[in-house]
Amino acid sequence: MVLCLVEFVISFLITGRLFRLNDTLTSWSAGILAHMAKLCVRSLDIGIYTWLFTHYRLGTFSMDSWWSWIGAILFTDLGYYWFHRASHEINLFWAAHQVHHSSEEFNLSVALRQSVVSHLGAWVFYLPMAVVGFTPVTFLVHHQFNLLYQFWIHTSLIKNLGPLEWVLNTPSHHRAHHGRNPLYIDINYGGVFIIWDRLFGTFQVEDPAEPAYYGLVGKLQSHNALYVQIVRLKEIWRRIGTHTNLPDKISAALKGPRWRPGLPFFGLLQRHIPLRDKEKNPEVMYNPSIPVWMMVYATLHFSAVLPYFFAMLARYEHEGSWTVTQVAITFAHVGLSLSFVGSVLDKRWWIPAAETLRCGALSALFTSLPGFSAGEQDPMLVHAMLALFVASMCFWPIYALSQAKRKVT
């Protein structure tokens, strides 16, 4: 988050434009939920990888040689390429990955906007590395490097890297990847390298004459972090319900997001849209107008979630895992709170009642939640959070009454 704030300052100094708070908080919220989910199943991928390496490897690559490191870098990125490509070209995988593409901005915060379930299927694409003979430690190191590399390419500040554009995945290539313009859909899947896209025919250069419009083709009209996670699953379920035979129902989930009966596996895509059609339908970001105090309120309550997240993170990093009950309670509390923060930014009509209930419950129970019991937090933080929850609980009924009186008069 610190690097996101640094980018925010640099971008403002260069362009004079501020990143939208609603979009940024949604990205950070999705990132928190995704990281919490990953903590709970962190041993799944490496556990299966280790088992396969132990029992079925063809040999062992020693990491004492430079060519073994290069091989591991390439193998890891090739695995990521196919996972990323499947995440776009198989509807059920896209239901998870679309979370990452749902932002209409393109900055470092978007790198944090991830699905809570996408990592559950990613490990399959790296298993050939275990069979070939790359050790579990080698896989972990290079997998983490691969993911860390992808963070910095989510920026609009870096335009072109010259000759490196031929080999590496760069901000320019990744801006094109995130575009919802037909020209940019389903292209540039590489993590570190762009060579796989050039090799397998999925490369598309960023065209200065065709600036990328970010976000989903269907345009997500929400900053609710939980809704962002499930919106595509709802659409898949709806499509399954419209089909009468089993093969079409299965195809609706496992073929391409654009597939319909009678179309090819991936559906059809018109790459170039005539200029007149663009002029008829200009791009407008989803950006509800809300007063400044609502932005401050959303920021404060987003911040109030962070101590619970950091407590869970610290426990998993240093002391071991929580119980199933503790994890379930934390997920319910954090997920609901972040969902309501997004709905405040959406200015949903039901927020006064919902926030009154949530803040009332937290006023009474927040010190009993995992991460806050038994004096685990600083007393000043505890008192500040209690004041926030009590004040918010009292504020919303007054606000609702004032709004009702205004409507009457």
Strand content: under 5%
Number of helices: 18
Please provide the count of β strands: 0
Radius of gyration: 23 Å
Overall helicity: 55-70%
Question: Could you give a short account of the major beta sheet?
Answer: none
Class per helix and strand makeup: mainly alpha
Shape: globular
Mean pLDDT: 90
> H/E order of the elements?
HHHHHHHHHHHHHHHHHH
Report how far the terminal alpha carbons are from each other.
45 Å
Any low-confidence stretches, pLDDT <50, length ≥5? none
List keywords for this structure.
mainly alpha
Write the layout of secondary structure elements.
Blueprint: H1 2-15, H2 21-40, H3 42-56, H4 66-89, H5 91-101, H6 108-112, H7 119-122, H8 127-132, H9 136-152, H10 171-178, H11 195-200, H12 225-242, H13 246-254, H14 275-280, H15 292-319, H16 324-346, H17 351-365, H18 379-408
Helix pairs in contact: 2-12, 2-15, 2-16, 4-5, 4-9, 5-12, 12-13, 15-16, 16-17, 17-18
Explain what you see:
The structure is a single chain. It is built from 18 helices and no strands. The protein has helices at residues 2-15, 21-40, 42-56, 66-89, 91-101, 108-112, 119-122, 127-132, 136-152, 171-178, 195-200, 225-242, 246-254, 275-280, 292-319, 324-346, 351-365, 379-408.
